[in-house]
Amino acid sequence: MSSDIYKDIILDYYRHPRNSGNLPDPDVRAKDSNPLCGDIIEMQLKIKDGKVDDIRFNGKGCAISQASASMLTEVVKGKTLNEVKEMGKPDVLELLGIDPGPTRIKCALLGLKVLKLAVYLHLGQAVTEEVKQLV
Amino acid sequence: MVEEATTVNVARIREDFPVLKRQVNDKPLIYFDNAATSQKPNAVIDAIYRYYREYNANIHRGIHKLAEEATLAHEEAREKVAKFINAQRASEIVFTRNATEALNLVAHSWGKANVGKGDKIVVSIMEHHSNIVPWQLLAEEKGARVEFVKIDKNGELRQDEVQELIDERTRMVGLTHASNVLGTINPVRDIARTAHRFHAVFVVDAAQSVPHMAVDVRDMECDFAAFSGHKMMGPTGIGVLYGKTELLESMPPFLSGGEMIREVHMAGASWKDLPYKFEAGTPNISGAIGLGAAVDYLRAVGMKNVYDHENQLTRYALDKMKQVEGLEIYGPLNADRRVGVISFNLGDIHPHDLASILDEDGIAIRSGHQCAQPLMEFLQVPATSRASFYIYNTKEEVDVFIEALEKARKIFAR
Lengths: 135, 414
Fold this sequence. Notes:
- The complex is a heterodimer of chains A (135) and B (414).
- Chain A has a single domain (8-132), classed as Sufe protein. Chain: A.
- The two termini of chain A are 19 Å apart.
- In chain A, strands 1-2-3 form a three-stranded antiparallel sheet, with helices on one face.
- Chain A is of the alpha+beta class and 135 residues long.
- Chain A has helices at residues 8-15, 63-76, 81-86, 89-96, 105-123, 129-132, and strands at 28-33, 40-48, 51-60.
- Chain B has 414 residues and is α/β, with parallel strands linked by helices.
- Chain B folds into two domains: 10-31 and 302-413, Aspartate Aminotransferase, domain 1 (Alpha-Beta Complex), CATH 3.90.1150; 46-299, Aspartate Aminotransferase, domain 2 (3-Layer(aba) Sandwich).
- In chain B, 40% of the residues lie in helices and 17% in strands.
- Chain B is built from 14 helices and 17 strands.
- Chain B has helices at residues 10-15, 42-54, 65-84, 99-114, 133-142, 159-165, 188-197, 217-220, 245-250, 285-301, 303-322, 351-360, 373-379, 395-413; strands spanning 23-24, 27-28, 30-31, 93-96, 120-124, 145-149, 170-176, 201-205, 224-228, 239-243, 261-265, 268-271, 327-330, 341-346, 363-364, 366-368, 384-388.
- In chain B, strands 4-10-9-8-7-5-6 form a seven-stranded mixed sheet, sandwiched between helices. In chain B, strands 13-14-17-16 form a four-stranded antiparallel sheet, covered by helices on one side. Chain B has a two-stranded antiparallel sheet with strand order 1-2.
- In chain B, helix 3 crosses helix 10 (285-301), helix 4 (99-114) runs parallel beside helix 5 and helix 11 (303-322) runs parallel beside helix 14 (395-413).
- The A-B interface holds A 1, 3, 5-6, 8, 11, 36-39, 60-64, 100, 103-104, 107 and B 25, 350-353, 356-357, 359-360, 367-369, 382-383, 411-412, 414.
């Protein structure tokens, strides 16, 4: 593992999470946990013209899971649902700026999984195996 | 009992464990995850290696030389384990895969035959999932119920609840000898006597005690005891169920098939004597031989020495940890009331983050719910970090661990 996993930016998002809280009237919400460590993330989305119009998240867990979820909410605003469906592990690693290593990668991907669950739910589509296996 | 050594040279002992020479992230490995699994001495690794290189054969039925040697070594291991825990007979030692399977054996075999509708099973809130879930499944199937003895603020069993919950409807009482989270050493003999007063069977989870202190099943007055080989320097895949002869004899088989039968006819089958009735299929022969070697090793060190060393180390660690700002320790603060297992949280740092930071310094600790979710709920924490010691750990390692905790505190204080 890289020794700078707890870079200032990750701790900053952990301590001061952006887009944390609830939307007054979300179009869709999804929630999931990592059974290994009990980390929980919930995402609430407002969708307009096939795009993410607004987003909030709630959660409990380690710095990696909470910071990556918060970072994701910032970058998906304005993205089309199809663009969100296309996002993957490399996008999350780019946001974090580090590779947390094999034992912690699932912490980093929980937010992305929940985000995708919300999109599939909103579209009324079956969740793909690829999404289920993110965490 | 064989006379045991009286002095312990930890530096010499460390030489026996090849993995302790390893570097992790360019730092010497500090292995503080012994409650999850222990490291293995050369004596154990060599015993397994020798079996496969020199006398690998299936046991019990072969007439040839290799089969004879393998059978002898396997049964010698059983005798070593029996002596180690002071069982009356080697046939009271049933080899299983691990402590979990041993507890499942009791739930499936004894439990299905003896627990009925409206009956009660009493366990403690500090049990590992392996001493909860088999009983919950049994209770569900039989219409019985599982009740939990809680703990006080020191992490010790509430005696008032012990007296209140164990009654004439209680068929079984299950208790951990030493908690894998709190480290608490439970007064097993007292609870055994309470259980027996109501003719309930008393099952001890000894997975965290047998590796770390002298355990005498007759002195504990337990009916069953379960433990795992891999936590006591043996290999994975071998565990032990100790059971009193009259109970084991009264019980139906658990798994069935080869090795455990006396005769099989189209109309039915009859079982072998103890302990083979409970050992279906080719067993983990190398595992048993490895466990036997582990028992030899522990006896040579002396279980009193193992306990005393870990007790000193635990006292030292508790004193140092109490001085770390924001560190909360779960379980008894008195080292004499616990084994060398210390669960804690440091400020609001998530245990997984803490484990990652300590790993950077080569320190292996555990983080998570420690397979004890009911206890985590009771303590109202989602997870904990856990450091757990063995005979090969040192005060110098504790010092490095404390420094790493301070480093983590500083990183998260930014």
